[in-house]
Design a protein that fits this description.
Porin; single chain; mainly beta; elongated; 198 residues
Length: 198
């Protein structure tokens, strides 16, 4: 959590120093989430399928040229998956995600890619009758490093929409190398609005 606070403070300082070129915005939309990795696609962990969640948050867009900008975001993101093994489990993981996207614009169209770190707020798994917490670090890693990439379109009047994929590189299972290799994956469809200079 200290690393997240430090990162947010750094982003705030960058925004302040580039105030003449920065715009702020909000975004929200549905997420289509799953687990990835060798164990998530094999028989050891169980059959893994997608589930629906949502994400929402705030962002700042810092122009560093006519076509390139840096866009840090702070998002509440629901992740998880359905896992069919001995029981049909439904995992729900709630994160604060901080992606830092580099965007390249062609008129209103933009492409984006960048790193991301997520901090687990809470989580649970349920088989329909029993619900267990997944917040304990003994059961799941609470910091998730990953990447994001996508494309979208911004109107000069402020509205925007886009599609993004988030991929985790952190194995969610704690412990040694004998643990299953399971990572987060999510498609995010969003709409938002940018305020300030266009």
């Amino acid at each position: 959590m200290k690393k997240l606070v430090l990162l947010l403070s750094l982003l705030a300082g960058i925004s302040a120093s580039a105030s003449a070129q920065v715009t702020f915005g909000v975004k929200a939309g549905p997420s289509y989430t799953n687990y990835t990795g060798p164990s998530a696609t094999g028989e050891t962990y169980g059959k893994v399928t997608y589930r629906i969640g949502f994400h929402a948050g705030v962002l700042a867009n810092l122009a560093v040229g006519d076509a390139v900008s840096i866009q840090p975001e702070v998002l509440y993101s629901q992740k998880g998956a359905k896992v069919a093994n001995n029981h049909d489990n439904r995992d729900r993981l709630n994160y604060i995600d901080v992606p830092i996207m580099v965007q390249y614009k062609i008129n209103g169209l933009f492409f984006e890619v960048g790193p991301q770190v997520g901090v687990l707020l809470n989580g649970k798994t349920t088989d329909g009758t029993v619900t267990l917490s997944l917040k304990d670090p003994k059961y799941i890693k609470t910091v998730d490093f990953g990447y994001a990439g996508g494309l979208g379109y911004k109107l000069k009047s402020g509205p925007m929409f886009g599609l993004r994929y988030n991929g985790g590189i952190t194995n969610l299972e704690p412990g040694d190398n004998d643990q299953p290799k399971v990572r987060n994956g999510a498609f995010q469809l969003y709409a938002g609005f940018m305020f300030g200079r266009k």
